[in-house]
Amino acid sequence: MSDGIYVGMSAAVARSKQLESVADNLANARSVGFKASRPAFESFLPEGGDGGKVYAGAVATGVDLRPGSIEPTGRPLDLVPDDGAFFGVTLPSGAVAYTRDGRLSVDADGVLRTAGHPVLSRSGEPILVPVDDVTPVVDANGAVRVGELEVGRLALFRLEGAVERHGGSLLTPTESAAIPVSGHVRTGELELGNAGPLEAAVQLIAAQRSFDQSMQAIQTYRKLDERLGELGKVR
């Protein structure tokens, strides 16, 4: 019966990973630019087994790049890239990450930032804005202007292939390519997380039930093992 315990344990571990993923999606359903994670499951046959028992496992967790819902804000530095494009930002390590978080701001040094990091221009450099009382504006082509002066154009990218989350709304490529694209942006809007609260809540309940069933199976097989051990005892 111990094999049955291992089957239940593998299922419980897989469901626990799903619970973590779904709970994260639910918590960030309204986080700007958040992309949901989707665990992938696979069945395994034990080595040398007869095929009578199958083990389950969560083998990977992918990131869903589909767009989320749009929320109007009316603020001139709130942006949404069209056609699923991403902004590029520079990390402290010098690496480039990508995000749909369009809450732009200008720091004390005049660096245009989003998601806490400098935004890349089409030349691959951060965009510097004169530090004064004039709020920059961004047109539909991604040009950043202060009055009549254009200080840079936002770089837009299309992600193809696998990516991983780098905290919050930031994504970094793993096997994917970040391809520069010529696109447009919409101002006065933000994109929220692409995991709806209702969808995530339903998935959470289903995953919790499956986890509970796996734990119940483990307890059942454990009791059967105990009964089998008692059969050989002399009373």
Verbal overview:
- The protein is an alpha+beta fold and 235 residues long.
- The chain has 2 domains: 2-64 and 194-231; 70-191, no CATH class.
- It has helices at residues 2-27, 197-231, and strands spanning 37-44, 55-63, 70-72, 79-81, 86-90, 96-99, 105-106, 112-114, 117-118, 137-138, 143-146, 149-153, 156-160, 163-165, 171-173, 177-181, 185-187, 189-191.
- α1 packs antiparallel against α2.
- It is elongated, with a radius of gyration of 25 Å.
- It starts with a helix and ends with a helix.
Give a quick set of tags describing it.
235 residues; 2 domains; 2 helices; 31% strand; elongated
Number of E strands: 18
Number of helices: 2
Q: In total, how many domains does the architecture comprise?
A: 2
**Element order, helices and strands?**
HEEEEEEEEEEEEEEEEEEH
pLDDT below 50 for ≥5 consecutive residues: which ranges?
Answer: none
Helix fraction bin:
25-40%
pLDDT averaged residue by residue? 83
Radius of gyration: 25 Å
Q: Overall 3D geometry?
A: elongated
Question: What characterizes the major β-sheet?
Answer: 4 strands, antiparallel
Strand order within the widest beta sheet: 6-5-13-16
What is the terminal separation in angstroms?
A: 24 Å
The SS-based structural class is alpha+beta
- Beta-strand fraction estimate: 25-35%
What's the helix and strand layout?
Layout: H1 2-27, E1 37-44, E2 55-63, E3 70-72, E4 79-81, E5 86-90, E6 96-99, E7 105-106, E8 112-114, E9 117-118, E10 137-138, E11 143-146, E12 149-153, E13 156-160, E14 163-165, E15 171-173, E16 177-181, E17 185-187, E18 189-191, H2 197-231
Antiparallel strand pairs: 1-2, 3-18, 4-17, 5-6, 5-13, 7-8, 8-9, 10-11, 11-12, 13-16, 14-15
Helix pairs in contact: 1-2
Protein name: Flagellar basal-body rod protein FlgF
Domain Flagellar basal-body/hook protein C-terminal: 188-228
Keywords: Bacterial flagellum, Cell projection, Cilium, Flagellum
